[in-house]
Structure formats: structure tokens, C-alpha cells
Amino acid sequence: MRRDARLSRMLHVLIHMDRHDGPATSEVIARMLATNPVVVRRTMAGLRDQGFVRSEKGHGGGWTLARDLREITLLDVYRAVGRPPVFVLGPAIDHPGCLVEQAVNAAVDGALAEAEALLLARFGAVTLADLARDFDRRFAEAKGRRPPAAG
């Protein structure tokens, strides 16, 4: 089954947007993600609707951040991209009347619900500024320098 990478891809885009001077067009973002600009516009619309980005049409237009990275969590972006399923596992529905299947599904559903709640709580505790700081640290280490002071 194919993984849903919308969350990771949009987190990537938002960090780049923070580091970029001026608006980023859908075409530029699409090239970065190796996708179609229409896909970018559709996905970015969810972020715009939540107030994380804004768009300007016309010459010199494009997408810009509308909020500071410290104000946006992974959970915010997860919700803005449509709350994709976090697990590919799920209950079987081959024989809904089977008591064994019911027992198995109850255990699987319960475990998945607990795991999803923990994951989403963690998403809510991590800001995009946290990701940007980690990027800065990695970049500095790759270049043999010290990371910039946190801001």
C-alpha cells in the first residue's frame, strides 16, 4: 500500500518557505516535490484555510507564510492536509458475524486508537520551529559549523 506523504511534504515546504525570501509559486513548490502545481494548490488550500499560509495572484505572487513557525504544530498541519490515516493496519470485515473476528477487531481497534492518540498528542507538542532548529543543527554539522542561536 502506498504511503500518504502529504504531511511530510507540506512540513518540508513550510520550512523552505520560512527560509525563502518572497513568495514561492505553486510551480516552484511542485518542482521541489516532483508533482503537479495543481496538486500543490489543492494541498496548500487546506493550509491557507487554516491561516498558516496566504496566496497572492499575479506577477510576483505565490505562497507565503501567514504565521510564525512557533505557532504551527505538526498536528495543525496534519489536520490541514485532511487528517490522513496514520496507520495502514485495520480490522478485517470479511465475516462481521464471526465472534472471533469481532474479538480480534475489538483488540486491534482499541490498540490502534490508543496508538493514534499518543501519536497525535506528540504531533501537538512539536512545532515547525522545532523542526527548523533541527534542520539548522544538521546543516551546521554538515558544514562543520555551530548552529545559529535559537530564536
TrEMBL record:
Which is an annotated Pfam family here? Rrf2
Could you tell me which PROSITE patterns the record lists for this protein?
A: HTH_RRF2_2 (PS51197)
Q: Where are the transmembrane segments?
A: none
Stated name of the protein:
Rrf2 family transcriptional regulator
Organism whose genome encodes this protein: Plastoroseomonas hellenica
Q: What is the lineage of its organism?
A: Bacteria, Pseudomonadati, Pseudomonadota, Alphaproteobacteria, Acetobacterales
